[in-house]
């Protein structure tokens, strides 16, 4: 399921779990299965099947098979078919081994797969791509939503709907889409201090080629601002849990993020700021069967985000825009081995060779309708590995 960590996790986005190659199981059978009596079978009829081979990709759940087919010669003999007999049986989960019967010889294949599962040792990894995709989408949304609230002067009750889409640049089959709701309230406790709290809930779908995972995200956030004349300090802290189903196993990840930014109003409407984000990610162990699971590791990251914002009000309308750079200042991953899902190519990626830079930007158009302020916004993030875009519609009313 998807999880919680901020946008600077882009350096992990191309990495696949260390266990990918061990999650492709195979069974090779050499039994001959007669299909029709050779003595009476007309020419061209299928009279036998042999060498049924199964391949089961635990990552996608996809089960495929190939077999040799034998054709009657019409004279009591048989010939090996010249064509290839390949079959796609769809998705299979470990708990369905005994009830899933695609063809003759499957009981032996199921027993072989059970033995292979029980013989695999637990593997260590940081977390899967599913986790990273979901973490990026969720935290991008909550941080941008709260930053918009801190950019206003008074207190309010507010709600925002968000559609988010994230795509990996180097693998068009890997993406995430979600629809979510953020709501909260904030107010001023003094002339210089504003505090608030909110909740983010969404339903997401993670896709990797032919695999999908439905995810539920729940994030709680508290935020505040200290402002003195043209100078301000913004703080955002959030904690979240994501629950999702992958290969019929209920997986979970939680984590927390702290964002601190300092800014200065250079001229009317023009603001320069620099922020620092710290994220702790805690994925739970994955369980694919009673005898096989994936051990995960907790990780920590720090990123720096300098940028500018500009806003302009005309009558009842307000137009604002922001542009930020992102720089990954610290991570505790170091060198790691990556196994690419599509080719199973193995390579070593060195942490210092990762592109640590990215960009973040957004535009917002607001309209003051008296007791209600409405805002339509668009946020965009791009780096060497992925693009992340969000469309959001928010309403707020003053306290």
Summary?
Helices cover 9% and strands 60% of the residues. The protein is mainly beta and 399 residues long.
Estimate the strand proportion: over 45%
Main sheet summary: 12 strands, antiparallel, barrel
Helix content: under 10%
**Using DSSP, what is the number of strands?**
23
Mean pLDDT: 79
Return residue spans where pLDDT drops below 50 for at least 5 consecutive residues.
1-22, 122-127, 334-353
Radius of gyration: 27 Å
**From the helix content, strand content and strand pairing, which structural class follows?**
mainly beta
How do the strands line up in the largest sheet?
Answer: 8-9-10-11-12-13-14-17-18-21-22-23
Q: How far apart are the first and last residues' alpha carbons, in Å?
A: 37 Å
| SSE ordering | EEEEEEHEHEEEEEEEEEEEEEEEE
User: How many separate helices?
Assistant: 2
Shape: elongated
Question: Would you give an account of this structure?
Answer:
The chain is mostly beta strands and 399 residues long. The chain contains 2 helices and 23 strands. The protein has a 12-stranded antiparallel beta barrel. Strand 13 and strand 14 form a beta hairpin. The N terminus is likely disordered.
